[in-house]
Design a protein that fits this description.
single chain, 451 residues, mainly alpha, two-stranded antiparallel sheet, two-stranded antiparallel ribbon, globular
C-alpha cells in the first residue's frame, strides 16, 4: 500500500491533537519502508517484524481523570489501604516515613507498563520532527506578522517536546538499547543546544537525591545564610518573573547557586573520571550544532535564523523552567525538604507534584505525570498515566492529583507567581525544613504592583 507524503504528514499532525489521540492509530505497510527508511529496520528488527505490517501507536495522552477522587474525599474508597496507613488517617505526614514501601508501589503497577517499545518511541521522534519541519515550511510560506508569533509559540512548544524525548533517552525509558538511547538522545538534545550526557548525568543526580537540601541538583532551595548574602538586585531577578524562566542556559554553564561545575566540561565536579569521554562527545555534538547555526547565519543573515530558531529556543527554555519548577514547587500546602537521616529516595520522590497542562499533555509526552516518573524513571512516558492510576490506591494522600486544566493551563500562572513570591529560602538547620518567605522582598513586590 502506498502512503502519500501529504496523507502521512496529516496523520502526524492529527496525532498531536488529544481529541484524535484516543481513537487514532496509524498503520503503515512494510512496503512503505523503502530504501529511504531502511535505517529504522536496522535499529531493532527483532522487536518489530510481525507478519506484514508495523503499527505506530501514538496514543498516551491524558485520558480524562486518573480515576482518583479529590484528595480530601479518598477516605473510605480503599479500606484495605486504610489499614496500611493506620495512624496518619491517609494524610501526608512529613515528620515520619511513608506507611508503605517503594516495593508496594512497584507491585501495583502492571507488568506491561515497564515494557519499552523502541518502535513506538521512534514514532514519537518522527512525529515531532515532522511537525517541526512543517511549522518551519508553513511560516516561511506565509511570512506575515500574524504567522510569526503563532509560529514562535508552537515551535517553542515542539522544541520542548523534543527535549522530553531526549530526556527519556537519558533515563533509558526510550528503549532497552543503550546505543540507540545515546544516538537518538544526542540528535534530539544537540538540535536544541543541550549537551546530552552532561545534562543526563546531572539529571540522574537530581532523581537520586530529590528533596535533599544538600545533594539535590536542580531548583535546589537557597539556605537562609546563602540568601542573606545576595544583594537586592540578585534577589529581585532570581524571584521576579520572567527572569527565573530563562535560567536554564545559566544552569548549564555555571550550575545551581552554591555548586560548582559546568555541563560542558569533562572535569566538572558533576562527573566521575570514567564519564569524561561521554561529556567530551556531547560537548562536541553541541559545538557542531552551534557552528552550523553560525554558518547558516553568515549565509542568510542572523535575523532569519533568530526568527526561525532563536526565538523558539527561548520559548523552549521558558517551558523547561516553568515545568521543572512547578513539579517541585507551588503546592497549596508547602512540601518539605530533607537533610541527613530524614531523607530517603521514597520520601524525596513523594514531594514531587503532578500537573495538568491541558492540550499540551499529549504534545509534550505527558511530562506532567511526574510523581511516578520520579520514583520509577525507567517507565516509558506512554505508560505513565496508567502506572499512576494503578499506584494511586497505594499512595493515598501521598499522591496529590493535579487540578484539572482547561485547554490552556492558565491556572498555573497564579500558582507560579505565588510560589515565586513566597518560596525564598529554607533554614540552615533542621532535618525537615520548609520554604520561608522574605517579608522585605514580598513587600517590595507589592509596592511595585501598587505603583
Amino acid at each position: 500500500m502506498f502512503v502519500s507524503p501529504f496523507r502521512f504528514i496529516l496523520c502526524m499532525w492529527l496525532t498531536t491533537c488529544p481529541a484524535f489521540n484516543d481513537a487514532f492509530s496509524v498503520y503503515l505497510s512494510v512496503s512503505f519502508l523503502d530504501s529511504h527508511y531502511f535505517a529504522f529496520l536496522l535499529l531493532n528488527v527483532n522487536n518489530c517484524w510481525q507478519g506484514g505490517s508495523i503499527q505506530f501507536c501514538w496514543g498516551g495522552g491524558r485520558m480524562g481523570s486518573l480515576g482518583v477522587s479529590d484528595e480530601y474525599d479518598l477516605k473510605g474508597a480503599f479500606p484495605e489501604e486504610e489499614k496500611k496507613v493506620k495512624g496518619v488517617e491517609m494524610e501526608f505526614d512529613p515528620s515520619s516515613a511513608p506507611p508503605f514501601r517503594i516495593a508496594e508501589i512497584r507491585a501495583a503497577i502492571p507488568p506491561h507498563c515497564w515494557v519499552k517499545n523502541p518502535w513506538r518511541s521512534l514514532s514519537y521522534v518522527l512525529r515531532d520532527f515532522l511537525v517541526v519541519a512543517s511549522l518551519m515550511a508553513l511560516v516561511l510560506y506565509l511570512d506575515s506578522w500574524v504567522a510569526w508569533p503563532l509560529y514562535w509559540a508552537a515551535q517553542g512548544t515542539m522544541f520542548w517536546a523534543i527535549f522530553v524525548l531526549g530526556h527519556d533517552c537519558g533515563h533509558g525509558s526510550f528503549s532497552d538499547s543503550a546505543l540507540l538511547n545515546s544516538v537518538v538522545g544526542h540528535i534530539l538534545h544537540s538540535f536544541i543546544l543541550v549537551p546530552y550526557h552532561g545534562w543526563r548525568i546531572s539529571h540522574r543526580t537530581h532523581h537520586q537525591n530529590h528533596g535533599n537540601v544538600e545533594r539535590d541538583e536542580s531548583w535546589v532551595p537557597l539556605t537562609e545564610s546563602m540568601y542573606k548574602k545576595l544583594d537586592d538586585s540578585t534577589k529581585f531577578f532570581r524571584f521576579k518573573i520572567p527572569f527565573p524562566l530563562l535560567a536554564y542556559p545559566i544552569y548549564l554553564i555555571w550550575r545551581s547557586p552554591g555548586k560548582k561545575g559546568s555541563h560542558f566540561s569533562p572535569y566538572s565536579d558533576l562527573f566521575q573520571p570514567e564519564e569524561r569521554m561521554s561529556i567530551t562527545i556531547s560537548t562536541l555534538c553541541w559545538s557542531l550544532m552551534a557552528s552550523f547555526l553560525l554558518y547558516i547565519s553568515t549565509v542568510v543573515g542572523p535575523l532569519p535564523v533568530f526568527k526561525l530558531y532563536g526565538i523558539p529556543l527561548l520559548i523552549f527554555v521558558m517551558w523547561l523552567d516553568l515545568v521543572t519548577y512547578l513539579h517541585h514547587h507551588g503546592y497549596d500546602k508547602r512540601l518539605p525538604w530533607y537533610r541527613g537521616k530524614e531523607w530517603s529516595y521514597l520520601r524525596g520522590g513523594l514531594t514531587t507534584i503532578d500537573r495538568d497542562y491541558g492540550i499540551f499533555n499529549n504534545i509534550h509526552h505527558d511530562i506532567g505525570t511526574h510523581v511516578i516518573h520520579h520514583l520509577f524513571p525507567q517507565i516509558p512516558h506512554y505508560h505513565l498515566i496508567e502506572a499512576t492510576k494503578a499506584a494511586s490506591p497505594v499512595l493515598g494522600k501521598y499522591y496529590r492529583e493535579p487540578k484539572k486544566s482547561g485547554p490552556i493551563p492558565f491556572h498555573l500562572v497564579p500558582i507560579l507567581v505565588k510560589s515565586m513570591s513566597e518560596d525564598h529560602y529554607v533554614s540552615d538547620e533542621g532535618e525537615i525544613v520548609f520554604y520561608q518567605t522574605d517579608p522585605q522582598l514580598s513587600s517590595k513586590k507589592k509596592q511595585q504592583k501598587a505603583a
